[in-house]
Amino acid sequence: MPAEQTQSPARVANVPPEVTGQPRRVVVGSVTWRDTFAALKHRNYRLFFAGQFVSLIGGWMQTTAQGWLVYQLTGSKVLLGTVAAVGSLPMLLLSVWGGSLADRHPKRTVILFTQTGMMLLAFVFAALVWSGRIQPWHILVLAALGGAAMAFDMPSRQAFTVEMTSREDLMNAISLNSSIFNGARIVGPSVAGFLMVHVGMAWCFLLNGLSFIAVIAGLLMMRLPKFVPPAEPPSTGRHVLEGFAYVAGQRRVRLLLLFIGVVGIFGWSYSVLLPAYATDILHVGERGYGALLSANGVGALFGALTVATYGSRLRPRLMIFGGVWVFSAMLVLLAVVRWFPLVLACLAVGGWGMLLCFSTTNTLVQTSVSDAMRGRVMGIWALVFGG
Fold first, then answer.
1. Between 164 and which of 17, 44, 209, 251 could a Cys-Cys bridge form, CB atoms 3.0 to 4.6 Å apart?
2. What is the 8-class DSSP label of residue 314?
């Protein structure tokens, strides 16, 4: 064996393919913190990571306050689901157009517009709550407008990840995205619970609006290569249809999207009813509700870090199916347990399993498609996930 190989073992190896006919590369050797945070070596991704973390804390503060506000104004479990549905409906109608936009225009520019729009909506929400004039129909309208912005934001933001890093670090970057999402999910609801008790609900919406400044500043500071626009399609409609045709012809992508759709409809939707679960089943207040969201976030954070560290070493099928079975088992337990500490444990473990499944699936979809189609495919991902 050559001397250089004995001194410096290989960091990657080709192994037999699992689903496709292409060999896949896995990391070998000992696990280090560099493996966990590999994507942070890219400057653009560091800027995105920091800005998103601040903004997502604000986002979870608003989500927590919004759910509590709806239930306090109306006492209606139906309206809780209606607000969530109205916020998701634009995903069904607009996300594929958002994916087409991501493939035809600079993704950073699209994200800047959508983030600015969501910032303005948060300020309007804060003003209405502060004035005491907030009504359920206001919440429905603002949820719909926020969902429309997200329908264009999500495909561009998902497809932008590989441009900020590289294909080799994509799984790590997606997992770190999930880690900051769920790290914010721990901090945001706890801060929101404190603010709602001590200084008022309006502060949750105001601080969320201000938090968008961090992600907008990070995007403006990035150094990106000059964007080369693709050939203009005959029509936007045909451009969108090309995305659907591409997915239909890719068996792996088609099955992964179908899988996420089923899990999203029958599993992930439990989170919509957490305010009612906290109030009517567990009989806990604002802080207890915040604790439920934070516990789920703790587990999901550890799930994201698990994928970031071991995602290139473990079989994707093991993480996807193992994660969804753990998540499903915890949902069954939540239907019968009433002891608050055990509920928190179930939410934490369920969050861990859910992130193993979702983060791995997202990575497999993105690495299975061509660069020219990634925006449209992630638009279809957003349609399935939101729907």
1. 44
2. S
**Helix, strand or coil, per DSSP, at residue 14:** strand
The sign of the torsion formed by the CA atoms of 273, 274, 275, 277 equals positive
Rounded to whole angstroms, how far apart are CA atoms 202 and 13? 53
Dist CA 329 CA 97 (whole Å): 36
Using CA atoms, how far apart are residues 354 and 299, in angstroms rounded to an integer?
9
| Structure-token match 């990391």, residue found | 27
Q: Report the SS3 class of residue 213.
A: helix
Here the tokens at position 334 are 């939540």
Q: What is the dihedral of CA 141, 143, 144, 148, to 10 degrees?
A: 140
Are 190 and 290 a contacting pair, CB within 8 Å?
A: yes
Cα–Cα–Cα angle for 163, 164, 167, rounded to 5 degrees: 60
The percent of residues above 90 in pLDDT, for the chain, comes to 23
Model pTM score: 0.74
* Rg of the chain over all Cα atoms, to the nearest angstrom: 21
The Cα 134–Cα 129 span in angstroms is: 5
- In the DSSP assignment, the letter for residue 281 is I
Closest-CA residue to 186 (of 54, 303, 60) = 60
Element (H, E) at 357: helix 340-367
What pairs with residue 25 in β-bridges?
Answer: 14
